[in-house]
Structures are given as C-alpha cells and as structure tokens.
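Deliverable D5.2: sample structural annotation.
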Amino acid sequence: MTPVPVDLLIEARYLIPVEPYDTTLEHHSIAIRDGRIAAILPTDQARTRFNAAETVSLPEHIVTPGLINLHCHAAMTLMRGLADDLPLMRWLQEAIWPAEARHASHAFVRDGSLLAGAEMLRGGVTTCNDMYFFPQASAEAFDRLGMRAALGITVIEFPSQYASDADDYLHKGLATFETWRDHPLISFTLAPHAPYTVSNASFERIGTLADELELPIHIHIHETVSEINDSQRDFGQRPIARLESLGLLGPNLIGVHAVHLSEEDIDRLALHRCAIAHCPTSNMKLASGAAPANQLLERGLPVGLGSDGAASNNRLDLWREMLQASLLAKLGTGDASSLPAHEALRMATLHGARALGMDEHIGSLLPGKAADICALRIDSPDSLPLFDAASHLVYVLGRHNVSDVWINGQRRLRGGELLQISNTELLSIALLWQNKLRQ
C-alpha cells in the first residue's frame, strides 16, 4: 500500500483524546493534513500508513487537546497584582475602574492581550473567550500570536475610555465584528458585562442581535450575594430570573461564575440548556464563594473553566483551574470521587468548546477536527512515577510541563519557546506598563 501524504505526524507516549470519555491511548500518533486531524492510530501503523512531511516524536509526553479558557479579561494582565486581597466591589471601585479610566486605550489592550496570549499559549491554552474593551486591539494581538480567540462585544451602561454608552459600545463592537468575521481563528460573542451594569432595554437589543448574528452571549451572573440582593431590590427578581424574563437564557448563553445559585436558578439554567464558565481560583481569591459545578454537571450543563483576569487571579493557568475545580467539588460534596480527572480535563476542553458552539471543530482529538494540540513533558523526577496519565495531568503536572502547542496544525510553541513573539518584547511590554500604572 502506498503511504498517504500528510503534513505532520505527532507520535505520543500517552494520548488523551477526551472523546471517547475516560480514554487514554498509549503509543499512538496523530496524522494532520491541512490543519485538521486526518487519523489517530497506533504509532507502528501510522509509520507505514502515512508519509509525513514532518514527524514530531514525543516519547516522554502526554498529548491532549488544546485547552479552552472560557472566561478571561486578557488585557487586565497589565494589572496583575495591582490590588490584591480586596473583595470584588472594593477591588473594582477603588482600584480597577480608576486604573482603567486613566490607562485603557488601544495600545493598553493590544499589549495586555499580547502578554496574556503568550502566557496562555505557554500553558497549553489554544482558545480563549475574552471580554474587554477595544476588541480591535485584542484581535490584532491574538492574530499576531496565531491563537484562537472569541472576543466579546462588551456592553455596559456607563462611559469608559472606549465608548460613551451602551449604543456606542455595540456600534463599535459590531464594526470590529464585521472587520474580522471571516478570520479563521477570531470569532465573537455579545458580552453584556453583568445584570447590575446593563439595562433591560440593552439586554433586549442584545438578545435580538444574538439571534440575528448567531452569536453566543457571554455575561457575569450571580457572582456575589450583594448582586442578587440588589437585583431583588431593583427589579423584584434574581438576576437569572430577570434574564429569563428578557428572553436571554438559552444554549447560546455562557454564564460566568454562577456562584450563588438556588435550586430554582439551577432549574432555569438546566431548562434553557445554558453553559457555565466556572472560575474557581478567582472566586476563591475574591472570597465570592464556589460555584456548585458538580451539581451543574449532573444536570447536563456544559461547565467550562475560566481563569478570569490576571488582576483577580494573578495567573491565566487552566491546569490550576482544573485542580481547584476538582478539589472544590470533592470538598463541597464530601465525596472524593466527585469531579474526577477525566471530567476536569473535559471541562477545560470539550465543555468550553460546547459553550462557544465550537465543539464540532475543537475540544477533543477526533478525525476531522482542527489540530489544536498540547503536549506536556513527563520525564523529570518530580513528575514520576506515573500510573495514570489523566490523574497525572490534573493532580501532578502544571503549565511548566507544557512543551509544545499546535493550533490548526501550526506549531505555536516548541520546547517551551514561543515562535511568534520574543521574551525580550514581552518583557519590554510588561515593564513599560508597570511603570505607567505605578505612576
């Protein structure tokens, strides 16, 4: 039989495809053609079946789908550590919003997104769902890095350096959407900030646009107790009930945080098949609480993982989010079998893809899907011995173990080194803005 030509053959010691669930393959290879997975099969068979233009041997690695950060504010990486150890509203009102009023700009968002994207790529994140101002600048940054990104058309009622009111936010965001809508890696969401910062009229317009443009809705919900109390005072409803009455709940809604949920809230989310972005580290750091992720998963909701911004988490690290999500579920339920390793990895990959409506293309390693791939080294003494590759991913390894990343079959990280931007440039960006914000 004549070998079939492919662009790339990745030979792995362990391969966890996420689909089928609870599957670990040993000594398997991924054949890639035109940016997509052509086949997954035992390595000895792959070597005879395919004639690869390039072969990458990963004999001491675990290979997974690229991770999906379902909620971040990438540009806020420039405010990493600016105001730690404060509760959410003090953190926003006393530190973050004033800093944004002074510094937010196209250059701020472009540079912050470059810094964030580089950090995520080094940690095996191949897709992020971002919510911030100046989406044109974010698009430019992620395009340069060759990273997949869903960018929020942010809507908020009060003025910022970016826009004057809700209509202006939508107008500018939709113009950016039109500019980038055919890009192979850049997509968009409608991103009303939160129920407490967006009016009913704006929500109704967003619902209409989401249907017309077939875009997900990305929104913070039920993050704090005070948010819920304020909603009941001002609208006579809990925020999720209010969103339901306005027609916003549905499979295209990604609710971020969802920490404080009643049984009725969960029933509503499940009825409308909403998705949730679980941000365990940020929620713990801001003392907001812990989302009932295990309960939401049991009701069939796609629950992905998000880092939130580096200003409220300090790291854009999905491996840490996997670990925290699993441990919180065990602690909260009193059941050590809650949210096992394979489920945590599924949250960081396939559930995030489903929330974004991208699960036909990314989120698992299957023939026909895009070749978004992450490889982690397992050859150091502090990561051995290894008895179960999946549990090792969640409970032992971390982003420092990520060695190689491909997006659409194109290598973005080789041996831990970024291929699109230098450390020298990234350090210059970080120090420039550190000095500006310090002033």
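Annotation notes: The longest helix spans residues 106-122. The CA atoms of residues 39 and 371 lie 11 Å apart.
The annotation will be released with the project's public dataset once the embargo ends.
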